[in-house]
């Protein structure tokens, strides 16, 4: 399946109990207007779209992943991609913080 190769996980219409368990309403919010955006994810991001519609084209892949309002999306660390936003996005997001940031010192 193409979605697995792209490593972006989209959960359509997650239950209210799952959203409450994740405490999504306490996550920061971010939004953008329609357009194309070049993005690189330095940490895994989980986001919940309140509104919007996006096609994500991972760098080096011929395919895309589409998601929109009501979707819970996990984007892997290290992914470089183009977001093609057709409907303005408003989302809650969270970056994975369980792993320590990379160290710049060598041992």
UniProtKB/TrEMBL annotation:
<dbReference type="InterPro" id="IPR008579">
    <property type="entry name" value="UGlyAH_Cupin_dom"/>
</dbReference>
<feature type="domain" description="(S)-ureidoglycine aminohydrolase cupin">
    <location>
        <begin position="20"/>
        <end position="93"/>
    </location>
</feature>
<dbReference type="Pfam" id="PF05899">
    <property type="entry name" value="Cupin_3"/>
</dbReference>
<dbReference type="InterPro" id="IPR014710">
    <property type="entry name" value="RmlC-like_jellyroll"/>
</dbReference>
<protein>
    <recommendedName>
        <fullName>(S)-ureidoglycine aminohydrolase cupin domain-containing protein</fullName>
    </recommendedName>
</protein>
<dbReference type="InterPro" id="IPR011051">
    <property type="entry name" value="RmlC_Cupin_sf"/>
</dbReference>
């Amino acid at each position: 399946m193409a979605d697995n190769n792209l490593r972006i996980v989209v959960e359509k219409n997650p239950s209210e109990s799952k959203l409450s368990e994740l405490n999504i309403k306490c996550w920061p919010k971010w939004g953008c207007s329609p357009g194309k955006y070049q993005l690189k994810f330095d940490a895994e991001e989980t986001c919940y779209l309140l509104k919007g519609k996006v096609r994500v084209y991972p760098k080096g892949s011929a395919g895309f992943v589409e998601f929109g309002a009501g979707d819970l999306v996990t984007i892997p660390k290290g992914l470089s991609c183009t977001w093609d936003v057709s409907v303005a996005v408003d989302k809650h997001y969270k970056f994975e913080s369980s792993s320590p940031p990379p160290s710049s010192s060598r041992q």
